[in-house]
UniProtKB/TrEMBL annotation:
Molecular functions (GO terms): manganese ion binding; metalloaminopeptidase activity
Biological processes annotated in GO: proteolysis
Annotated protein name in UniProt: Xaa-Pro aminopeptidase
The species this protein was found in: Agromyces cerinus subsp. cerinus
Limits of the Aminopeptidase P N-terminal domain: 58-202
Reaction(s) the record says it catalyses: Release of any N-terminal amino acid, including proline, that is linked to proline, even from a dipeptide or tripeptide
Family stated for the protein in its record: Belongs to the peptidase M24B family.
Keywords: Aminopeptidase, Hydrolase, Manganese, Metal-binding, Protease
Length: 523
């Protein structure tokens, strides 16, 4: 059954209408009855709902602490952080909803969050009052209950009440219709996370312009910030995105526990892929089987995959973001699997392993693989509080430059290649070695460079280490036996008080361990 279609054959009047675009998309073929008799019949005879309120979820206290930091950063200003809404895939079908990461971080609401919800920080004399606005479930005596395929419980199942969410998240809640009052109160000091929901951002832009115009008419025009425009860039809003991004650079206890759980689930997914190699190699699109096996584990243990899985066999492994995953998996080739499970809290793992399909590396494959592992180990060895984040990449590149120079692939020595104006070894590894990880697979991406790439590493940070070597099938700078081989090893690293922990070290890493893993032998 399509998830938003009403194709019943009842002879009837037009359906009830709502503001939902979903209803509009379906209206011309709906057969939902519209008579008063039907409305009365379908709206009656239901058992009382159990409205036992839950205890606050584990992350509620952590989210409250994060909101306190945001409040301190924007004293006296109204701040609007939308969850975002569903995105259309095709006509009346939508992509699975995922709330914006900043909204999830500040509310603790993850995979069960409501589309269209908005978090508002309303300034008070001593900080802010935080409120989540969302569309509460409809009463069973309303037409929305049965006639709205986007949000009606007949169509999508039970939805929470305001009281339930307030208790669950330990935060004040109000109906989404009351958000209009927030928009009416918007002034030019009000800030919005622009990227989260275009419709909310547009409403805020219009309201700020309206306020500025009213101020200009009643006072001095020079006092009104007429640089505001609908849909335009607005530097104070960019500051919101930056602050919310930088807030996630250091993970709290809940976040670290969720990362561990995501990595454990990812390990199970990888192991299940290895176990399905006979079926994988038998299919013409074996890469799709890999993708499907891992996605099943992600849905069983978490919310979904944290990003499009890369299941790259043979020469596809030299394509950094190969997500088409439609090729065969051939014994003798390598498979590069880059995948991560996203938990219901939205925290995701990001791990890559490269393994030989037949359980044995060729001589050249092993040489490349162990060079990449050496680079990864060199990068990991320097991780501790106090280093600069970019030094992790530099440590890996020293090994990559040395190895490619030893093999005769560079026009200069390794030392010369490492000079900023040269970097010839980067032909074979054009991506960076590390990125922060958390709610987003590339977490904290809007942080300032001086806080990210040039930032000082702190305990509680979680990031990847993922060097690789990629020799394209048509690369004439390398011998023929190297061409078409791609290797990447990616681990998720937690910075500790005095060093670092490789959270994904339990997944086989050395060439010997990987071979034993694929063969099903005890390590």
């Amino acid at each position: 059954m399509a998830n938003t279609s009403d194709t019943s054959t009842t002879e009837t009047a037009a359906p009830a209408t709502t503001a939902s675009e979903e209803t509009v998309r379906d209206a011309n073929r709906s057969t939902t009855p519209g008579s008063e008799g039907f409305k009365n019949f379908i709206g009656s005879g239901w058992a009382e709902r159990d409205e036992t309120l839950p205890q606050a979820r584990e992350q509620a206290s952590f989210a409250a602490a994060r909101r306190a930091k945001v409040s301190a950063a924007f004293t006296g200003q109204r701040l609007i952080v939308p969850a975002g809404d569903v995105k259309q895939r095709a006509n009346d079908t939508d992509y699975p909803f995922r709330a914006h990461s900043a909204f999830a971080h500040l509310t603790g609401w993850g995979s069960d969050s409501e589309p269209g919800a908005v978090l508002v920080f309303e300034p008070t004399t001593d900080g802010h009052e935080a409120t989540v606005y969302f569309r509460e479930r409809a009463g069973r005596d309303s037409e929305e209950f049965y006639a709205n395929p986007a949000i009606g419980e007949f169509w999508i199942g039970p939805r929470p009440s305001l009281a339930h969410v307030a208790a669950d998240l330990d935060i004040a809640t109000r109906g989404l219709e009351e958000f209009d009052r927030v928009i009416d109160a918007v002034d030019t000091a009000t800030l919005v996370l622009r990227e989260a929901d275009a419709s909310v951002t547009e409403r805020v832009d219009h309201a700020r312009i309206r306020f500025a115009a009213e101020q200009a008419l009643s006072t001095n025009a020079s006092d009104a910030p007429f640089s505001l425009e609908v849909g335009g860039s607005h530097e104070p809003d960019a500051e919101v995105a930056r602050v919310l991004s930088e807030l996630r650079l250091v993970k709290d206890g809940f976040e670290i526990a969720q990362m561990r759980a995501a990595i454990d689930a990812t390990q199970r997914g990888f192991t299940e892929v290895i176990g399905e190699l006979p079926r994988i190699t038998a299919e013409v699109r074996g890469e799709r089987v890999i993708e499907g096996v891992f996605a099943t584990r992600a849905r069983l243990d978490g919310n979904d995959v944290g990003y499009d899985s890369i299941a790259a066999a043979g020469p596809h492994a030299t394509i950094l973001h190969w997500t088409r995953n439609d090729g065969p998996v051939v014994p003798g080739d390598l498979v590069l699997l880059d995948a991560g499970v996203e938990m219901d809290s939205y925290y995701t793992a990001d791990i890559t392993r490269t393994f030989p399909v037949n359980g044995t590396f060729s001589e050249v494959q092993r040489k490349i693989y162990e060079a990449v592992r050496e680079a990864a180990d060199a990068a990991f060895a320097i991780v501790k509080p106090g280093i600069v984040f970019r030094e992790v990449h530099a440590a890996a590149m020293q090994v990559i430059a040395r190895k490619t120079a030893e093999w005769g692939f560079l026009p200069v020595s390794a030392e010369e290649s490492l000079e900023p104006e040269n970097q010839f070894h980067r032909r074979y590894m054009v991506h960076g070695t590390s990125h922060h990880l958390g709610l987003d697979v590339h977490d904290c991406a809007q942080a300032r460079r001086e806080m990210y790439m040039d930032g000082v590493v702190e305990a509680g940070m979680v990031f990847t280490i993922e060097p690789g070597l990629y020799f394209q099938a048509d690369d004439l700078t390398v011998p023929a036996e190297f061409r078409g081989i791609g290797v990447r090893i990616e681990d998720d690293i937690l910075v500790t008080a005095d060093g670092a922990e490789n959270l994904s070290a339990g997944i086989p890493r050395t060439a010997d361990e990987v071979e034993a893993w694929v063969r099903g032998e005890a390590r």
